[in-house]
Amino acid sequence: MNTSLILTVISEDKPGVVEHIARVVNNHNGSWLESRLSQLAGKFAGVIRVQVEQEQQEPLVTALRELRSQQINIIVDSYESSNAQNSQAQKVRFHAAGPDRTGIIKEFSQAFANKGINVEELNTLLSSMPYSGAPLFEASGILALPENIDLDDLTEKLDDIADELAMDFSLEPLE
User: What is the CATH architecture assignment of 90-173?
Assistant: First the structure.
């Protein structure tokens, strides 16, 4: 019987991090199912879902923890498909962009939480506005909506927040 594990990874950004993790997973006959990995501020971080035969789980976890000697820190959590939520929920993509200031993510995430919306993916970027060079904050991602939510009402609420923050905001259903 197979078991799935979620690996949370953080290390210094350096060549070979993914290869070390992949080798350990492969050495225990595990399968790398999906991942989100990224370099951020000199660190390499991400989340990986792997599957391994149940009798290989403990040896795999031990071997992954041994990567700490190479400054690759991994937290392992078990995962059951019954824990997966929102797989059938309506999904929408959002994008917001505007002048940077404190509280942008707090305002949007609070509105999402108040409506029972799950943030499935969130990407943010701080860059410079053309011409002025002022800080430009962008956020985009995927939201899983509860069944009873009215998309027009949600769009109106989020547009109001965007207006208060002087940001452009868009929301569109995923196909």
Answer: 2-Layer Sandwich (3.30)
CATH code 3.30.450.20 for 2-83: no
pLDDT digits (tens, 9 = 90+) for 128-140: 998 899 999 999 9
Choose among 141, 33, 142, 144: nearest CA to 88. Answer: 144
DSSP characters over 116-158: T-EEEEEEEEEEE-TTT--EEEEEEEEEEE-TT--HHHHHHHH
Distance CA 22, CA 17 (A): 9
pLDDT of 79: 78
Same fold, 2-83 and 90-173: yes
State the pLDDT at residue 83: 45
Going by C-alpha positions, the residue among 70, 69, 61 that lies closest to residue 8 is: 61
What phi and psi, each to the nearest 5 degrees, are found at residue 154? -60, -45
